[in-house]
Amino acid sequence: MGEKKPVAPALKTALDFGPLLVFFAAFFLLKDHPVTLWGQSYGGFVLATAIFVPVLIAAMVALRVLTGRLAPMQIATLVLVVVFGGLSIWFNDPRFFKMKPTLIYLLFATLLGFGLLRGKPWLQLVMDGAIPMQPAGWAILTKRLVAFFLFLAIANEVIWRNFSDTVWVNFKTFGLPVLLMAFFAAQAPLFSRYAPEDEKDS
């Protein structure tokens, strides 16, 4: 595993969220302007996906070079984006790409749940020490995050199957990140309660 290197927070944020914003912008610019290639018409969603996939790959490569490593969740997300984004482009079918968040969240919930059953602090390893906390706190956070990922998977399925492309793109671009940030903000009492003893005493 490569040694983690410090990187400017603004640059890391841009690389983390920039590709998603590129997808959002491309979709709204192209949604009313289908393009015909090799006798087949491609709508804005598939065209935006075709732009998003290489942009995300480039961002992940940049993160790998700058930080010296990628988190397991970043690698899993990249693989699923390439696979399901590629299927959407190849078959000219947005449904594959819309299913991708469901599979990502189900995968994360399954892996974290399996680690919890084995008594392994996989969440702590994945978060790479970003949150100092006692083992009991990590166990509680893992249980909550498993339930939250299952909720996000169900929410994604409900939205993409019942609403328009525009609604799903807004949900994917803004709804999911806001829900994730709100979830971790709501865990502040947990982080405080299970902070390492030396930090409590300081």
Explain what the structure shows.
The chain crosses the membrane at residues 12-30, 42-63, 70-91, 103-123, 135-154, 174-192. This is Inner membrane-spanning protein YciB. Belongs to the YciB family. It is a single chain. With 202 residues, the chain is mostly helical. The chain has one domain (9-195). Helix content is 77%, strand content 3%. Strands 1-2 form a two-stranded antiparallel sheet. Helix 3 runs antiparallel to helix 4. The model has no long low-confidence stretch (mean pLDDT 89).
How are the secondary structure elements laid out?
Elements: H1 9-30, E1 35-37, E2 40-42, H2 44-67, H3 72-91, H4 95-117, H5 122-126, H6 135-162, H7 165-186, H8 188-193, H9 197-201
Antiparallel strand pairs: 1-2
Helix pairs in contact: 1-2, 1-7, 2-3, 3-4, 4-6, 6-7
Strand adjacency order, main sheet: 1-2
What is the helix fraction of residues, given as a range? over 70%
Low-confidence parts, pLDDT < 50 over ≥5 residues?
none
Classify the secondary structure makeup into a structural class.
mainly alpha
Task: Please report the number of helical segments.
Answer: 9
Distance between the termini: 33 Å
Global geometry: globular
Membrane topology: Multi-pass membrane protein
Pfam families: IspA
Function: Plays a role in cell envelope biogenesis, maintenance of cell envelope integrity and membrane homeostasis.
Family: Belongs to the YciB family.
